[in-house]
Design brief:
Blueprint lengths: L2 E5 L5 E4 L5 H7 L2 E2 L13 E6 L2 E2 L12 E2 L4 E2 L3 E5 L3 E2 L6 E14 L2 E7 L13 E5 L5 E5 L9 E7 L5 H8 L5 E8 L12 E6 L3 H13 L6 E7 L8 H10 L3 E7 L2 H7 L2 E2 L2 H8 L7 E6 L1 H13 L7 E5 L9
Bound molecules: FE2/S2 (inorganic) cluster.
FE2/S2 (inorganic) cluster binds next to loops.
């Protein structure tokens, strides 16, 4: 039986069907609450349930005390909820596109950059930091962030980490110019807070570079001059697979600082970077993050460690924005 979900303190409500989770029900109704993985891993969708009954899996590490993960919980009655944030969206903006492979380049041992082109005359609309889903032959989907900025709207650039035995990794190896893929976008609400000029700390691991590249390329185009520090975590020098973009930001952004956090000691020294993990690079570089905003993209473990380091350095609780990459099939609304 469908239930009515009301957002506390507003006159907004939406319907949650049987078997639907609260986050997806909101998205379908054009109400977007914070989310990233939609798989119960990142904790971004956590909110309070003020009245009514919900069915949720047992609380795990991602669940803050007293809160519920809306991507994992179903309603058992009408509810009054208090998400961390919400805004109205137009659900019809999420569209399927048939795109052509333009270029498929292996840029590191375990990373490919895939350039896709839309059919002539078609354009995509998305915000810097959002992601798309690629349809696979078995009906499952994989999620990848757009690395190109939104103004490059006739193309899509994806940075894809190779996963051993991964279904899309195997398909990727065969993809050649002219091949067709089905993609749906835009998804996600990771993106730059446009209401502030606070210094930005971007912390990325591996292909977590992609959404931040979109953010920074857009800032240059829009001439937005915020102080930016980018910490890019990688195994070795070769894993920093798109250094020309970093060099471009150094030249075009007056207050841009780059820190490579590299596991390989010799490579860290060679590039003048930090030897170690991104969270330790945060602790090493910043005495305080008071007044900063942090934009963090990568694996769940990396994001959790980075968040802890940022809060140790005094970052305000609501100034940490993350996009968590979970390998394997994407959750489909
Ligand atoms: S835990 Fe719900 S969106 Fe990640």
């Amino acid at each position: 039986m469908p239930h009515l979900i009301r957002i506390s303190g507003t006159d907004l409500s939406f319907c949650c069907e049987d078997g639907q989770n609260i986050l997806d029900a909101g998205l379908k109704a054009g109400i977007q609450m914070p989310y990233s993985c939609r798989q119960g891993v990142c904790g971004n969708c956590a909110g309070a349930v003020l009245s009514g009954e919900v069915a949720c899996p047992p609380a795990g590490d991602a669940t803050p005390p007293g809160k519920y993960l809306f991507c994992q919980c179903r309603s058992l009655s009408d509810l009054e909820i208090a998400p961390e944030a919400w805004h109205r969206i137009d659900p019809s903006t999420c569209q399927l596109y048939s795109v052509k492979v333009y270029r498929n380049t292996v840029v590191a041992d375990d990373v490919s950059v895939l350039q896709l082109r839309l059919p002539a005359g078609q354009r995509v609309r998305f915000k810097a930091g959002q992601y798309l889903q690629v349809g696979l032959p078995d009906g499952s989907r994989r999620s990848y962030s757009m690395a190109n900025p939104p103004f490059e709207s006739d193309t899509l650039q994806l940075h894809i980490r190779h996963v051993v035995g991964g279904q899309f990794t195997q398909i990727l190896r065969q993809l050649k110019p002219g091949d067709l893929l089905q993609v749906e976008l835009p998804y996600g609400n990771f993106g730059r807070n446009e209401d502030t000029e606070a210094p930005m700390l971007c912390i990325v691991g591996g292909t977590g570079f992609a959404p931040v590249k979109s953010l920074l390329d857009e800032m240059i185009k829009k001439r937005i001059e915020r102080q930016v520090t980018l910490i890019w975590g990688a195994r070795n020098l070769a894993s920093l697979y798109l250094m020309p973009a970093v060099e471009r930001w150094k030249q075009r952004m007056p207050e841009f600082t780059f820190i490579a956090a590299v596991e390989d000691a010799a490579d860290a020294e060679a590039i003048g970077g930090f030897h170690g993990r991104v969270d330790d690079a945060v602790r090493n570089h910043f005495a305080t993050l008071n007044g900063h905003e942090v934009y963090c993209c990568g694996s769940p473990q990396m994001v959790t460690a980075a968040k802890k380091a940022c809060h140790e350095r005094g970052l305000a609780p609501n100034h940490f924005f993350s996009d968590v990459f979970v390998p394997g099939p994407a959750a489909v609304i």
